[in-house]
Amino acid sequence: MLRRYIIGLLMVVLLLITTTPSSAASSSYAVIDAETGRLLAGSNENVPLPIASLTKMWTALVAIENLDLKTPVTISQRAATSEGSSIYLTAGEETTLETLLYGLLLRSGNDAAAAIAEAAGGSLEGFSKMMNDTALFYGLENTHFENPSGLHNEKHLASAYDTAQMLRIAMKNEKFEKIASTKYFKGTTGNGTLWENKHKLVRNNKFAIAGKTGYTKVAGRTLATYFEKDGKKVIVVTINEGNDWVVHSNFADYVFKHYTNEVIAKEGTYSVQSDINIKLTEPQHLLLTKKEVKKVKHILQLPRSKTKDSIGRWSFYIDDQPVKDAIVDVQWK
């Protein structure tokens, strides 16, 4: 149902917006459950495309994972003269990684991206390798970075699904979440003005928690948004979508209306064999439609022999596709 609704929605959108320039890339989108990463709907979601400044979500996460927020940074000439959007850094200026991250995620400063890359990776090239290594570690198979800002490069690509996963992974980091969800920040670099988050939904939609905007002539408009309402968490990513504010809001509204956060396994101890109990330490939830509730399958993987501190795996499937795993304590009777 969600796929049919979205296809209809996008057809209407295409009639309302102006024709995309011929230089722009193909379009794609992905809607995922922010808790499990399960794809709820998508189109061309696994096709690598230019993502423009959505790149900076990964730039921020990689920097946060490798440096303290209070790390001092001296702005180089190369960073200060970066092409594209800017927070107006000057060569020789001293600031902190934290301030640069606010300039990166709220104002999309390419100069901030370059300064962060040099601080964390020694150079833009060295940091791009760190970004790719981290993407490989997290299993992003359709992603490759050539720079920390998202400026166009034929090899700098990511799929909509991978990009949604980037935001999902990054939002598990409390430092990233705090910065990305900030609406306004008093900048202490460049001209020192109040920085407003460019993401209009984060500023004005109470269910839009965080996200990132992007644009280049080749990529078109790109947008990533993390929504949360009544315990339901969903991420929407669109690539080359001219009416992205409306599309994102409609995607989220549909999920909030038609999906429920179902308990698929309760916390507690279960007897699964005459000599084995398993203990689940917390309830397991999945974002499901009414039809999907009946399709959930349970598969247990248990150790073959008795060992101390034995653990097993409780896997949940929908339409024979794995969607979530839980670790269980195995207790021998």
Name the strands of the widest sheet in spatial order: 2-1-11-10-9
**What portion of residues belong to β-strands?**
25-35%
N→C terminal distance? 46 Å
Q: What is the helix tally? A: 11
Rg computed from alpha carbons, rounded to a whole number of angstroms: 22 Å
Please give the number of β-strands: 18
The number of domains? 2
Q: Helicity range of the residues?
A: 25-40%
Task: Provide the residue-averaged pLDDT.
Answer: 92
Looking at the structure, the CATH topology of the largest domain is Beta-lactamase
Taking pLDDT < 50 over at least 5 consecutive residues as the criterion, the unreliable ranges are 11-23
Q: CATH H-level name of the largest domain... which superfamily?
A: DD-peptidase/beta-lactamase superfamily
Largest sheet: 5 strands, antiparallel
Please trace the helix and strand order, writing H or E for each element: HEEHEHEHHHEEHHEEHEEEHEEEEHEEE
Could you name the CATH class of the largest domain? Alpha Beta
- The CATH architecture classification of the largest domain is 3-Layer(aba) Sandwich
- Structural class, from secondary structure content? alpha+beta
Q: Write down the overall geometry.
A: globular
Family: Belongs to the peptidase S11 family.
InterPro entries: Beta-lactam/transpept-like, Peptidase_S11, Peptidase_S11_N
Binding site for substrate: 212
Pfam families: Peptidase_S11 (PF00768)
